[in-house]
Amino acid sequence: MGAKDVKPTRSELIELKKKIKLSQSGHKLLKMKRDGLILEFFDILNKAKDVRAELDKAYEVANKKIGIANAVDGIITVKSTAFALQNIPQIELESRNIMGVVVPKIESSSVRKSIEERGYGILGTSSYTDEAADAYEKLVEKIIVAAEIETTMKKLLDDIEKTKRRVNALEFKVIPELQESMNFISLRLEEMERENTFRLKKIKG
Amino acid sequence: MHLLQRLKKGLHPQKSRSKGHSNYAYTTARVRAMKSKLLPRETYPRLMNMEINQITRFIQEVEYKEDVDELAMTYSGVDLIEHALNRNLAVTFTKILSISEGELNYLISEYLKKYDIWNIKTILRGKYCGASTDEILEAVVSAGRLRYTFLSELAAKPTYEDVIEALSTSEYYSILKEYNGENLSGIENLLDKKYYDDLFQAIGDPKSKDKKLFNKFIRTDIDLKNLVTLFRLKKYGIKDPSMSDLLIEGGLKLKIKEIERMLPLSFEDFLTEIENTPYWEEISDCCSPKMDSLIYVETRLKKLRLKSAESFSHVYPLSIVPIMDYILSKENEVSNLRIIIRGKAVGLSDEEIKNQLVI
Q1: What is d(CA B356, CA B359) in angstroms, rounded to the nearest whole number?
Q2: Alpha-carbon distance B185 to A84, whole Å?
Q3: Is pLDDT at A114 greater than 50 in this prediction?
Q4: Which residues constitute the domain of residue B259?
Q5: Would you state the pLDDT for residue A116?
Q6: Which of B357, B323, B284, B250 is nearest to B22 (CA)?
Q7: For A88, which residue in chain B has the nearest alpha carbon?
Q8: Structural domains in chain B (count)
C-alpha cells in the first residue's frame, strides 16, 4: 500500500493508528514466538542428535545380528521363522501443540516381545534368531522415537522459518508503510487545516 | 501311482520300515566313501582367506557343482550358494535313505524326520502370514521322508486347514488338528518334542551295543537342547514353572527333575546351578551373570555335540553310529560353508566368522 494511495481523512488516520498498534503488538508476539520456537528447536535438536546416534548404533547391531543368524541358521531358517511373527507392532499417531505448532506424538505397542510372545516355537529355533529378533525390535523402537523427534524438528523448523518471515515482513514492510501512510495523512490534514484557515481569512477580508 | 506309494510309505514308516533285513555293511561302506569326500578341516582357514567369488568357484569344483549349475538360473550370489548347499544336503540324505534298508533305513528316516517337521512348520508359518507358495517353497528343505512334490502340493494349499487335512493320514495329525490358527508356537514345540519321542520309540529298548550308543547320542542331544532352552528362558527372565512343557524328557546327564528345579531360578542362580553339570567345563569361559549374548554358548554346545558323535563313530563301524556321524558332519560342512559365505557377504570380521565355525 503506497502512502499516496490512502485517503487523507481523519477516520483513515484513526484506522491506521489502530492498525499500527495491532501490527506492533503482533510483531512483538511473533518475535517472542520465534525466540521460543528457536529455544524449543535447540532442545529437540540435542535430543535428535542422541536419538540418531542411538539409531545408527541399533541399526549396526541389528545388521550384525541378522548377519550372524543368516550365516549360522541360514537365510531359509530365518525367513521361515519370520513367517511365524505374531502381534505386528501397532503404532498410534496423536498430536501435541508446541507454541501453536502441531507436532506428532507416536505411541507404539507390541514392539518389544518376550521369547514366548514372538510366535515361533522355542525348541525348533536358536538363540541366533532370538538375538536377531531382539536387535530388530530395539531398532524398530528407536525408529519410532526418531520418527517422532525428527518430524517434530522439521515442523518446528518450518514454523520458525514462517514466523521469521512474518516478523521481518511486519518489521521492515508493513509497519514502516503504515507509519509512512500515517505521516502522510497527518501532514495532509495539517495542510488542509492551514488551507481552510487561509480561505476563511480571505473571505473575512 | 509310484509316488503315491512312496508317500504312503513315508507317512506310515513304522508299519513298513521297522522290520526287514538291514544292510549295515553296504550302507556304512557307501557312507564312509561319502564321508571321504567331505571337506577336510584345513580347507576352512583357506576359504576364510578367499573372496566370495573364489569360494563360489571352489564350491563348484567340489561336490556341489551339480547343485550350483541346477540353481544358477533361479538364484545368484550368496543366495545361489546357500540354496545349492541345502539342495545338496537334501539330495545326500535322500541318497542315504534310498541305499539303506530295513531297520537301518527306519532309524535313519526317524532321525531325518526333523526335516519333515521343519518343512511342515515352515508351510504352516507361511500360511499363517499369507506368504506365497514360491516364498514358502524357498524355505523348504526336503531332506526327510516327505518328498518335494508332496511339500509343493502342501505349500500350494490355500489355507492351513487344507494343509492339515492333507496330512490327516500322517503321524503328525494328532498334534496338527489342535492348531487353531493362533497357537502356532505351541504346535511347533509339540512337533519338536514328538520328534524325540518317536526317536526313542524307534530305538526301543536298546539291547545291542550300537543301539545303546545311538541312544546315548540322542540323549546327549536332548541334554544340549534342554540346556540351550534353559539358557534362552533365563536370559529373557522367564521363571514360569509351566515352561517345563518346553523341556524334553530322556536326557543323559541332566534329569528332567533337575532341570525343572532350575526353571524358577534367576540367571545368576541358574549359572551357579549348572556349574555342577558335566557340560559346564565346555561353556564355563563364555558364561557370566552379565553375558548379553548366548551365541557363544550355543556354538560351544554345537561343537560338543559334533565331538561326541565323532568319538562314537569309530567304536562300531558296522552300525547306525558312523551314519549318524556322517549326517552330522555333512550338516556341519554345509553350516560352516554358509557361515563363511554369509559372514563375508554381511561384512562380519574374520574373528567373528571363526568364532561361529564348528571345526
Answers
A1: 9
A2: 8
A3: yes
A4: 209-318
A5: 80
A6: B323
A7: B129
A8: 1
Report, as an integer, the average pLDDT of A106-112: 83
Check residue B30 and give its pLDDT. 93
Please report the pLDDT score of residue B128 as a whole number.
86
Please report residues of A whose CB lies closer than 8 A to that of B187. 121
Q: Which residues 223-242 in chain B show a CB within 8 A of chain A?
A: 225, 228-229, 231-233, 235-236, 238
Backbone angles phi, psi at B137, to 5 degrees: -65, -30
A154 in any annotated domain: yes
Within-domain flag for A3: no
pLDDT digits (tens, 9 = 90+) for B128-140: 888 889 888 888 8
Of A76, A118, A130, the CB nearest to B86: A76
| Per-residue pLDDT, B16 | 42
Tell me the one-letter amino acid at B212: K
Answer with the residue of higher pLDDT: B11 or B198: B198
For residue A58, give how far its alpha carbon lies from the nearest alpha carbon of chain B (Å).
Answer: 15
The total number of structural domains that make up chain A: 1
Query: How far does B26 lie from chain A, in Å, by closest CA?
Result: 33
3-state secondary structure of A76: helix
pLDDT, position A111:
83
Q: What is the CATH number of the domain that holds A130?
A: 1.10.287.3240
What is the C-alpha to C-alpha distance for residues A68 and B55, in angstroms, rounded to an integer?
Answer: 18
Q: How many CB atoms lie within 10 A of CB B236?
A: 17
